[in-house]
Fold this protein.
Amino acid sequence: MHESLPRFGEALSRRVDRRVVLKATAAFGAMSAVGAARVRPGRAQNAETIAGTWSETGGTGSSDSGEGVVFKADFPFYAVGAHWGGDTDLVPRLEMSFSADGVSFTEPVAVGAAVEDAGRPERDGRVFSDLVFTDEARFVRYRTLDDAGEPVQVPDLALTYINAAAGPTIDDVYAAALEPALSPPPIISRAAWGANETYRYNANGVIWPPEYRTVEHVIIHHTDTANFQDPLVAMRSIYYYHAITRGWGDIGYNYLVDYMGNVYEGRAGGENVVGGHAYQYAYGSTGIGTIGRFSFESETPEAQAGLVWITAWVGRKLDPLGRADFHETPNLPTICGHRDVNESTCPGDYLYGDLPTIRQYVNAVLNEGASPEPASPAFAAGDVVSVVVPDGNLRSGPGLTFPVIAEMALGTLLTVVDGPTTHDGHTWYAVTGSYGDGWSASFLLQATGNGAPAPSSFRTGDSVVVDTDVLNLRNSPGLAGGVIARLPFGTQGTVVGDQRVADGYGWTQLETDQGTGWAASSFLAPASSSAPPSTPAGGFSVGDKVVVNTDALNLRSGPGFGQTVIATMPTGTPLDVTVAPQQVDGSVWYGVNSERYGGGWVAGEFLAPAGGSGGGLQVGDTVQVIDGSLNFRSGPGTSASIVNVVPEGTRFTVVGGPVVANGYSWYQVENGSYGAGWSVGTFLRPV
């Protein structure tokens, strides 16, 4: 951090404390007072983005009653880009619709040729459209039209479909700001979001070698993709499309910002590297891509906060309200839009209209010590909340236009896993619970335990211990207090202050070997009352098959509550006991192995013998895959061949079973996309 900018450093420090990257600190900083948060296991870090290309010349698409050509992709996908031969004067428009089953298609999405202003040669001289995102789909229906809207044949037309779901999840990138520095501020790195660095090379070496120019301007873009989507999938899809499909060898933007304000590293090379986003204007500028399209809709306040923050950082030596000649454009604003330097509608009318506000905010950050963040959120990832109205809507996305997944009963308990983001006049949080995963408006929710808690019996000088898996020690009494440390089960402390009540909890001030702060009183116990070690009923032996017998169970790297959590396993997860039990932290611990999560240690009181009950599913039930992707096998049993890997959320109809094999109950299920196959019943949930 430069000594000439102390106010900027102070502003960033406050923003880091209160979520510079709105979610990056949330999971580690908001392991709420109710103990350990539900952490979704991340996907394998070495998993690859996969892509396929369908072409009219070699494809077997079918006509669909004059509505267009339909083809089936080789695997489910989430993004599609069209491209065609460059030796034509046609300026076609493509209308594309998508379907998971080949029967029900989405409304058409129209795309044309993307603006060619990256300064990079397009692969084979072809013309490319912008990338179009969709929910998981397997079929594409498209039409090609001319300027008059009449059907037209486009030479050498092809469509590339991309599945970038494999790789790090948003949960995995929380650590980007766990211990943030101010030089530079925390940015989700290429490695963290899952950039495959081999995309940047061919047989001759680096495809796009880095060049450097001192930054004189900041150019704001939009990616012209869906506004609300998994940001990690979007990042990897855009990267693949730029680097591989279009042949650039890297992503064109220097940085990208998602709808929750997270900031991602784009083009490889660090500060002042020349990107590919505005032809010659990329030399001497930083290009910031705002994920979404903003021609008819504003960016969220959280996205704007992220834009202000990263713009202030990269332009910290510039005058945010100034102007200067830049290449062929005279008197160009220091912070400008893509359309100011190239013929383009980017970054959309709404975001472009907000640029004066963004300039003022950046100036306030750099010169007045203001913070670029929006208001402090009501909830943080890991908080347990309850529904406060009857039949509260759980939606598939953060907005009133997203479909209602379920109507939740009054008092339903949920865990916050994402957010906040503001849209349609409401602030939204991603939540998980008995109705599944979805988004809820904040006015439907309240922190649990909002009644006045009974005061604790602790007094100054008392010795206490943590009586839950992990408990936050905060710098002030309340859920909004910053987290000083995460105290594992059994941590000892001394009461050093009076009791307080905030956010529905009683709070006790403690002095511990990890610092002095505040903890929720209901998760503390007198030091003398630690429970003695106990043996779980029906102890297990090496070789036994068991299942998780609680809502969610931590798989740890060793026996004891202080050991690292490898994964959090849902109820019913099948395990093999591999190591004899050990008594640690008042519990009996077993070494176990899971086909899905690998090996580790679990507390025995949360295990039950594996049985053949079958989970209560019946032929004809509609079920949904839960807890990540699921192996789809040719028969009942782990020795049967895997015929497909089915994504989380896929729906099937039960057509056979249960059959008990290898200690698990198996069901035969089918749908139009995957056909029929066998799956373990514990990973299927009735819909």
